[in-house]
Amino acid sequence: MKVIGLTGGIGSGKSFVAHILEKMGYPVFYSDEAAKYLTNKDSQIKSQLIQLFGEEVYNENGLNKKFLSDRIFQNQAVLAQVNSIIHPVVRQYFVSWTMQQKSDLVFNEAAILFETGAYKSFPANFLVTAPLELRIERVMKRDNAIREQVLARINAQMSDDEKMKLTPYIINNDEREPVLSQIESAIDLVQTV
């Protein structure tokens, strides 16, 4: 079994590509969804976050996202601590999930694959890109956000130019070039890696 990373900046259409891969019969592990689930369900994560931030980090609805984001926003040291608590548990969960798959090719979808260095653990990584204005438009519509908010989120991420230096497998989701044929070509290439 070969595990391929799948990533892309906000508004690039990474989830769109992931759903196409699933329709093609390939299992996709959604890292961000797994992290959200485990942050609310895993006793190890919960106890460590409570130890770090106090009981307020959880409320009756589970993780107090506003409280946590206020603590980690603009504080790289605290963000790194939180990631060091959550990421190993997600990684362990991913390994267990992978062992249950029957496909010869599976995908690990993650928003910050390159930023965390996790891309190095895969033989290949697919990067989904889209023109900046299209990304802004998509996120504004999806999140009911204003342009400045979306731009701030995009600028907080590693640029596509930087990411493109780390992988040759680029899927351009510009709503002009057919995505399916790009995915098929990339899959053909990675199966020879």
Summary, kept brief:
This protein is of the alpha/beta class. Helix content is 55%, strand content 15%. The strands form two sheets. It has a five-stranded parallel β-sheet, sandwiched between helices. Strands 3-4 form a two-stranded antiparallel sheet.
List how many beta strands DSSP finds: 7
CATH top level label of the largest domain: Alpha Beta
Overall tally of domains: 2
One letter per element, helices H and strands E, the order comes to EHEHHEEHHEHEHHHEH
Roughly what is the average pLDDT, rounded to an integer?
Answer: 94
Query: What's the architecture of the largest domain in CATH terms?
Result: 3-Layer(aba) Sandwich
How big a fraction of the residues is strand? Answer: 15-25%
Radius of gyration equals 17 Å
- Whole-Å distance between the termini? 12 Å
Strand order of the largest sheet: 2-5-1-6-7
Summing up helix and strand content along with how strands pair, one would put the structural category as: alpha/beta
Q: What is the overall shape?
A: globular
Poorly predicted parts: none
**Helix content range of the residues, please?**
40-55%
Main sheet overview: 5 strands, parallel
Q: At the third CATH level, what is the topology name of the largest domain?
A: Rossmann fold
Figure out the total of helices. 10
- Name the CATH superfamily classification of the largest domain: P-loop containing nucleotide triphosphate hydrolases
